[in-house]
Amino acid sequence: MISAGDFRNGVTIEFEGNIYQIIEFQHVKPGKGAAFVRTKLKNIKSGGVVEKSFRPTEKCEKAHIERKDMQYLYNDGDLYYFMDPETYDQIPISSAAIGDSLKFVKENEMCKICSHNGNVFAVEPPLFVELVITECEPGVKGDTATGATKPCTVETGAQVSVPLFVNEGDTIKIDTRTGEYLSRV
User: Fold this and answer.
1) Low-confidence ranges of the chain (pLDDT < 70)
2) 15 alpha carbon, distance to own chain's centre
3) Are 116 and 66 spatial neighbours (Cβ–Cβ below 8 Å)?
């Protein structure tokens, strides 16, 4: 159990039957009345964000989230298969739990599988990936001052905006959190 007075950013709690991660918290001591803790909570299964106030003495169950490194093997219809590199156990995960997180991940890449009580709810791709551009319009030199970009398709099928000097066949580094181009490799 954790009391609301001990809340910190990143802590996961069980509250009202859901699992939330504390994004933001603030201890408020109004001039009149009792102190309280104002929080922003992110539902880690659905991704929704709610604001909630707690009394500092209120207690919540602390949720233990297990993050395990697993290798992404392949996709078979609605299921994505991952392998534990230590035990070689393979587990299928539905596309509903994965969502959009594998759009920059190639087969045989390592990912983090997030689960609570054995139920997988999310897959975290590596922070940075290197992918080859498969489709890209040629860059046209012209009257661009700074920061001109063009759309390109990478080998996983995802769309990325890249600078004009990047061409088809180049390998680029992408930040998977934002989907932004970082550099050529």
Assistant:
1) 141-146
2) 22
3) yes
